[in-house]
Design brief:
The protein is of the alpha/beta class and 236 residues long. The chain folds into 2 domains: 7-140 and 204-235, Rossmann fold; 143-200. Helices cover 22% and strands 34% of the residues. The chain has helices spanning 7-10, 15-21, 26-36, 52-55, 70-76, 115-126, 205-210; strands at 42-46, 62-67, 84-88, 99-104, 129-138, 151-158, 161-169, 177-185, 192-200, 217-223, 229-235. The strands form 2 sheets. Strands 3-2-1-4-5-11-10 form a 7-stranded mixed beta sheet, with helices on one face. Strands 6-7-8-9 form a 4-stranded antiparallel beta sheet. Helix 5 (70-76) links the parallel strand 2 (62-67) and strand 3 (84-88). The radius of gyration is 18 Å and the shape is globular. It binds S-adenosylmethionine. S-adenosylmethionine binds next to loops.
Length: 236
């Protein structure tokens, strides 16, 4: 009997080409993170999705990725390398261990819509950061800087031919942004092959900063190449 994949896992095999077409190159992101996090020796990637960033890390360090979506973890686990592993887990209960850097990329933590649940998730992830280590969170939509919702088309080519993806941001409802993804093979007028909707909570930058109080934490900001703002919190 075939396993029922989540909508997100159903288009996982398309995501490498799609991310590149959008200028979000995993190798560039991994190299940037390795440098700005001070060349960590163990990294935990929370909500790792397809595992592309950990797999593209420029050095063969100890890397663990986890995601609540078992279909995505299965996809990620096909990227076999020494020191690289992927497991099913949640932000609230991350894999045991301590890590020099804990990552949460591409607004993964903003998939937790409830402020208190997100606060608990940040606490659980902080507990996995070693002394002197860092936590790096790529921020997504911020209600103070959000532009009006728009639809964006991305086109790229795979061995199977031409793909198009339409990303449409629905209007904000109950403080939640519904981002709808529609995949077409051939052209925009061709039938939709995959469809998926992600719910994301716009979160103010101040909220994030408040989760990392001094003197234990020091916060600075950077940027993910081809992506969003990056909060880097260093633990004393
Ligand atoms: C936008 S994707 C980002 C994937 C990956 N970090 C990247 O940069 O491509 C958000 C990911 O967070 C995962 N996620 C959402 N809520 C989660 C939770 N409570 N625990 C673990 N993973 C979660 C989703 O399954 C999804 O793979």
């Amino acid at each position: 009997m075939s396993k029922q994949l989540s909508a997100h896992a159903a288009w996982a095999e398309l995501s490498d080409g799609l991310y590149l077409a959008k200028g979000r190159c995993p190798a560039t992101i991994a190299k940037h993170l390795d440098q700005c996090l001070g060349k960590p020796v163990q990294v935990l990637d929370a909500g790792c999705g397809t595992g592309a960033v950990l797999a593209a890390w420029p050095r063969e360090i100890d890397r663990t990725g986890f995601d609540r979506d078992s279909g995505l973890v299965e996809h990620a686990a096909q990227r076999t390398q020494p020191g690289l592993r992927f497991v099913v887990g949640t932000f609230a209960e991350p894999p045991a261990g301590s890590f020099q850097s804990v990552l949460a990329l591409f607004a993964a933590l903003q998939y937790v819509l409830d402020d208190e649940a997100r606060r608990q998730a940040v606490l659980a992830l902080q507990s996995r950061v070693t002394r002197g280590g860092t936590m790096a969170i790529e921020l997504g939509p911020d209600p103070d800087t959000m532009h009006p919702p728009v639809a964006i088309w991305t086109r790229w080519r795979t061995a199977e031919g031409q793909w198009w993806m339409r990303r449409a941001m629905a209007t904000l409802k109950d403080q939640t942004l519904a981002i709808k993804f529609e995949f077409h093979r051939g052209g925009p007028a061709s039938p939709v092959v995959h469809c998926d909707t992600h719910l994301i909570r716009p979160v103010r930058r101040d909220w994030w900063i408040a989760q990392f109080p001094p003197p234990l934490w020091t916060v600075r900001f950077d940027h993910i190449p081809g992506g969003g703002p990056l909060l880097i919190a260093s633990r004393a």
